[in-house]
Amino acid sequence: MANIGRASAFIAAGTLVSRLTGLVRTMVLVTAIGVFAVGDAFNTANGLPNQIYALVSAGLLTAIVVPQVVKAARNADGGSAFISKLFTIGIVGLFAVTVVAMIAVPWLVELYSPEFSPAQKGLATALAYWCVPQLFFYGAFALIGETLNARNVFGPYAWAPVVNNIVSTAGFALIIWLYGGNLTDIADWTPERIALLGGSATLGIAVQFFALLLFWKRAKLRVRPDFHWRGVGLGEVVKMAGWTFLMVLVGTIGGIVQSQVVSEASGALEGNPAGLVMSNAWLVYMVPYSVIVLSIGTPYFTRMSELGSAGETERLRETIDSSIRTLGFFIVLATAVLAAGALPATRIFTNSAAEAAVSAPVLLAYLVNLIPVAILFVIQRMFYILGDTRTPFFFTLLQGMLVVISAYLAAAFLPLELLAAGVALGQSVATIVQLIVATILLRRRFGSLMAGSWLRGYARFGVAGLIAGLAGWGIWQLLGGADSWMLDSKIFGIVGLGIIGVVAGAVYIGVLAIVRAPELSVATDTIKRFRRRSAE
């Protein structure tokens, strides 16, 4: 447990710094290109490598690499032969997919943003040619990073994105310095400016990958190109990968439908939360997910994989319970803070109070599933540890169907100014259903999940979170509410959200202390380790 706590603290520190520098990156980007036609075009172009990477690589890595590398570590060579073959096939596959994606750029832009104007599609296509090469570097970065995680080397994977943010921010700032900010007119974008914008984004991803390579020696594995892909268990990987690919394909189709639905509202109304604005609401949502769920859940996942490989079922059950309750302590507080401070939180990523006002409902809609997603992180990875990627496909298929249906319902019944919020809410409801079904199926497959223990914990967190959220909302109202100084600038938004967070956090911990929540000691130990790591 102590090792998990130290690893979580180190990952959290890196993730927090990454998110803070990412915040600066986004603020500079929004200042340079705005949040409407140009912003949406860049969002589509820069999102393509992420979408394609998720389809061909991300799900595979998450589901397979960590459990399989942990299992291969029991081999006489420590897993070097397995990793060599896995890396070779992974790098070759990534290169091939990147080449195909570059050829298909015009069709991909049309697929994701069919409602864009011809000029906006032209800009998105030009930017995409610069951004799609990120796909290769994203995949290689994740392949190495997940392997390091499986070898209990957690820090570099979390800290390397800081380098990306610094490099890309410098490029975006250079655009402002050379050409001025708020370049929201498509006609402003010459080939040189397009190259600087898209090239800066891709250069950051490439440098991030090479920065991670500097830490490979810590994995203590000898890796070399190996095109002989038989004899070390890759057959099992391929079998699992088939279901994983289909699972991620379902998510990708859902994302395409959402993108198509929301693209209809791109620039249609002044201040409408479409495209980049919806993406920025997602960025706010992803801060607690990354800092809390990934930083705490990643070392737990490695530990659970080790226990599963060793056949220690009872200890694995205890670790499931511990991981879900530890995640819950922090994620409920984060939900309460962001719900109370939705307007200053979204103001950080927008250029005006009016834009924040129409973006806040999108954030609130996403927040509905922040707590369920934290639990689902553990539940879904338990299937991977059991070597089962087939079952996750089916409950993900259910979720994907609900995402698509809800997106079309939002388009049919909601006005444009509420469309993005409706789409986001549909995704949240779909995820809640997915969690319920996944938990029932895992209970049938694995037996007891000690659900009573962590459900009681979440009941305590829920009461404390509700009181804390009301306290934070009270501070927001006391300091002016919708007319508060917190909405005057991005910096004031950060300060205001910090004030709300401090008040809500103090109330949250106070309530849990009064009810003597057993999770409080585990959480405070994690915070102490985080502070020690930050001071080092």
TrEMBL record:
Its main location: membrane. The chain crosses the membrane at residues 20-39, 51-70, 82-107, 127-145, 157-179, 194-216, 237-262, 282-302, 323-343, 363-386, 393-413, 419-441, 461-479, 491-515. Keywords: Cell membrane, Cell shape, Membrane, Peptidoglycan synthesis, Transmembrane, Transmembrane helix. One of its GO terms (molecular function) is lipid-linked peptidoglycan transporter activity. It is found in: Cell membrane. The keyword Cell membrane applies. It comes from Microbacterium mitrae. The keyword Transmembrane helix applies. CDD domains: MATE_MurJ_like. This is Murein biosynthesis integral membrane protein MurJ. InterPro entries: Lipid_II_flippase_MurJ/MviN, MurJ. It comes from the Bacteria. It is a multi-pass membrane protein. Pfam families: MurJ (PF03023). One of its GO terms (biological process) is peptidoglycan biosynthetic process. One of its GO terms (cellular component) is plasma membrane.
